[in-house]
């Protein structure tokens, strides 16, 4: 029995760890997000999902990666998989049934929450770091104020900033940190995807990365601070973080680690965040085009950043965290390295990494670039897959370059997300043009 | 008083930590080695040296780096600065006098030995990690067998190998590890610069990196093992390490860290080791041409290697080590990452890094390559410096490319070592050609 491979329960508790006011927003369509994460599945796995993942899409995954997706079962609940949902007796019973025919299982969850630890125990399967998770341990890493403390303790470079506990202190911190660049970022302690962050700027800077909103600060700082405090400080955890904001970063990137049960962090992947400004001057917005793996940094900056990030990952492991860890940083226009935050969950680039690894091998990043496009015109999956194949654009292990449709909405109301892999960035851009041309013609 | 800068005693205890049988060899000329390390000096520093460093050379250092070398004093002993030498009352008294006119001092030593810790205490100046050094703590890192244990404990990739305690075990280990590549490397626990390593090969492989000697193994493994045991096992520390040897490494490189008193390892520099085969087929030897900073590795391999190396540096810091730490690794012909050893001392690349940093800024490696040549025809220092300047080949902060003579023997019996800095490897090679042409004409 012990000789049999370990299968996994892929627990898509996406958004389950967000505070309620953010978790319920629909800015990140759930169906697309769940389809996207189904790329982690391997033969025999069970996917527990808060949104339907249809057979057509699973067959697309299996067909691309070369396994029989018919062996995958889906346990569906039509709501976010909060701890309450995953510990409900009917959910546990359904999972128990789904894993009954195989001896070795583990859970791979987006967030290793208290509920995930409890669920693993009820199912009688292992869950690394569950004692830590049962205490909501990852709050120590994710909470903005805690991150600053832990990072400062090991000498990680941070933006000049303050952790403040009152509107008065907030006003003072804004005045203190505004002069450096003419902008500060005010961060809610517990939030995700920049949704809890607001930038205050002396001039009209337009939309900026890392924040849900950019506001021009008026003459009355106290009033601004009062208003922001009401919006961002959370009742269960009062306080916010204020930092000097560096608007024109030269590099925006992340490193992702996996702390497995050995307690030794393993580097998984790195990537650059690609942003473009879109819309008219009056209605300009910043679009997250996608990610590009590996992170493209010059040698000195890369080595410095990786050393600091690894030191942090070791600290997280020592504290007791097990699971994926994403560490976000920038190099400013003047060449300064600054760490922004960590997220103790799987990152946006892990899907790209997983598909590229499974098709081209673990070392794909030694000779390939894996890039995502999140804004491809929505067309039915079958048609775009067929068209890509017809034009020789589909990614295969033999060709070592091409396109994979990573995610789509079945109703074509949201853009497609595609992965492009090629030996160089310039070749990726050529594939992008070719793909868009093919999709436009559909 | 506390407002005054900290000056340093640059303690050139080169070779002081080698076992006697190696420490007394003259394979690495001491005069050149000491001149080379004088690049660490800054205005007002004291250099304690086992070989003369003349004013002409110090003026060359000061002139290149832009400070008055007349402020540097040299405390000279004409022998290796062993602990016995540096703790002799006359040496301590001379140092005490040399540092009397300034309040703040620290020691920068090649090896932080027991004697260095004791010397610092006698002089009443700080020495990071001295309690650890007083117990010969760095033996835990440098000793080949200990390195394998510590590395294995944190999941660092090592060559398949064994730590053996008898000639019989050595024979068995040779037979066990020979088939993988047709060669094994047998390592003395305590040695430096590959001088304690012998490669055994099934075929005639010629000279190989990382070892003092390559031997073709005969049919009688037991006899070979007996002989090697007698040569390599040390009376004070019996045993050797046997590892699969990977002859044709795709990349040979190191990472250097500094663990300062904060206990957080800081990345300092990385480099590739450049080797060429020289001589006739009958008398072929492998020459260490020089180092090239930063290490040139593809992205996946680099991130994996840096993550492991940083994890090791954190372990060394946790154990209590303070000082420079060099971690050596290769990527084999088949793409496998393997760590070879660590050296708890300053590395060969630190001089290159120091000169490049002081002339071009700490982030020079983001846009420059710093490369050393150790085989330039010996000519008098003044003449080569003048000729380089005349041909516009001298490295200046403004030009951001050029040549610096790093080390030479005053008697011109040994080759010059030169640093070449340029924006790219190809430009470095052009400078190399230009330099050799200029030197040939002298």
Measured between the Cα atoms of the first and last residue of chain A, the distance is 50 Å
Show unreliable segments of chain A. Answer: 21-27
Main CATH class of the largest domain in chain A: Alpha Beta
| Number of DSSP helical runs of chain A | 15
Cα gyration radius of chain A (Å)? 22 Å
Bin the helical content of chain A.
25-40%
Mean pLDDT of chain A comes to 91
> Into how many domains do the coordinates of chain A divide?
3
Structural class of chain A: alpha+beta
CATH topology of the largest domain in chain A: D-amino Acid Aminotransferase, Chain A, domain 1
Number of strands of chain A: 17
Strand order of the largest sheet of chain A: 14-13-10-11-12-15-17-16
CATH architecture type of the largest domain in chain A: 2-Layer Sandwich
Pfam family, one (chains A, B): PreAtp-grasp
GO molecular function (chains A, B): ATP binding; metal ion binding
Protein name (chains A, B): ATP-grasp domain-containing protein
Organism (chains A, B): Embleya hyalina
Layout of SSEs?
Two copies of one chain form a homodimer.
Chain A: E1 7-11, H1 20-23, H2 30-37, E2 46-49, H3 55-65, E3 73-76, H4 83-86, H5 89-98, E4 105-109, H6 114-123, H7 130-134, H8 139-142, H9 144-153, E5 161-164, H10 167-181, E6 183-188, E7 197-201, E8 213-216, H11 221-232, E9 240-244, E10 251-259, E11 265-278, E12 285-293, H12 299-319, E13 323-331, E14 337-343, H13 350-360, E15 369-376, H14 381-390, E16 402-407, E17 416-422, H15 425-440
Parallel strand pairs in A: 1-2, 1-4, 2-3, 7-8
Antiparallel strand pairs in A: 5-9, 6-7, 6-9, 10-11, 10-13, 11-12, 12-15, 13-14, 15-17, 16-17
Helix pairs in contact in A: 10-11
InterPro entries (chains A, B): ATP-grasp, PreAtp-grasp
GO molecular function (chains A, B): ATP binding; metal ion binding
Keywords (chains A, B): ATP-binding, Nucleotide-binding
């Amino acid at each position: 029995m012990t000789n049999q491979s370990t299968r996994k329960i892929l627990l898509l508790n996406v958004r389950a760890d967000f505070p309620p006011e953010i978790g319920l927003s629909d800015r990140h369509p759930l169906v697309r997000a769940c389809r996207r994460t189904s790329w982690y599945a391997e033969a025999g796995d069970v996917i527990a999902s808060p949104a339907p993942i249809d057979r057509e899409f699973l067959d697309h995954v299996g067909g691309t990666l070369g396994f029989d997706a018919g062996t995958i079962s889906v346990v569906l609940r039509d709501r976010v998989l909060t701890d309450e949902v995953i510990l409900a007796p009917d959910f546990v019973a359904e999972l128990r049934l789904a894993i009954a025919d195989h001896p070795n299982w583990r859970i791979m969850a987006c967030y290793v929450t208290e509920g995930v630890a409890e669920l693993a125990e009820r199912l009688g399967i292992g869950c690394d770091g569950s004692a830590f998770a049962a205490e909501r341990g990852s709050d120590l890493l994710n909470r903005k104020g805690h991150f600053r403390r832990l990072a400062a303790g090991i000498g990680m470079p941070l933006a000049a900033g303050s952790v403040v506990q009152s509107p008065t202190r907030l006003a003072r911190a804004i005045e203190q940190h505004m002069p450096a660049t003419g902008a500060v970022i005010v961060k809610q302690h517990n939030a995700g995807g920049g949704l809890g962050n607001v930038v205050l700027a002396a001039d009209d800077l337009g939309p900026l990365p890392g924040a849900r909103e950019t506001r021009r600060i008026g003459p009355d700082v106290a009033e601004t601070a009062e208003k922001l405090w009401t919006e961002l400080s959370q009742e269960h955890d009062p306080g916010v973080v204020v930092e000097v904001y560096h608007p024109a970063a030269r590099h925006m990137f992340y490193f992702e680690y996996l702390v497995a049960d050995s307690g030794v962090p393993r580097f998984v992947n790195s990537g650059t965040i690609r942003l473009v400004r879109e819309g008219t001057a009056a209605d300009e917005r910043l679009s997250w085009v996608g990610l590009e793996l590996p992170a493209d940094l010059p040698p000195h900056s890369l080595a410095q950043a990786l050393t600091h990030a690894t030191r942090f990952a070791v600290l997280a492991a020592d504290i007791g965290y097990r699971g994926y860890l994403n560490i976000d940083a920038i190099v400013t226009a003047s060449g300064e390295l600054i760490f922004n935050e960590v997220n103790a969950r799987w990152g946006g680039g892990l899907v790209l990494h997983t598909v590229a690894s499974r098709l081209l091998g673990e070392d794909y990043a030694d000779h390939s670039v894996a890039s995502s496009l999140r804004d491809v015109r929505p067309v039915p999956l079958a048609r775009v897959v067929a068209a890509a194949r017809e034009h020789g654009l589909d990614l295969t292990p033999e060709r070592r370059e091409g396109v994979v449709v990573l995610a789509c909405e079945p109703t074509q109301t949201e853009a497609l997300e595609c992965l492009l892999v090629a030996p160089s960035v310039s070749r990726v851009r050529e594939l992008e043009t070719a793909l868009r041309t093919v999709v436009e013609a559909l």
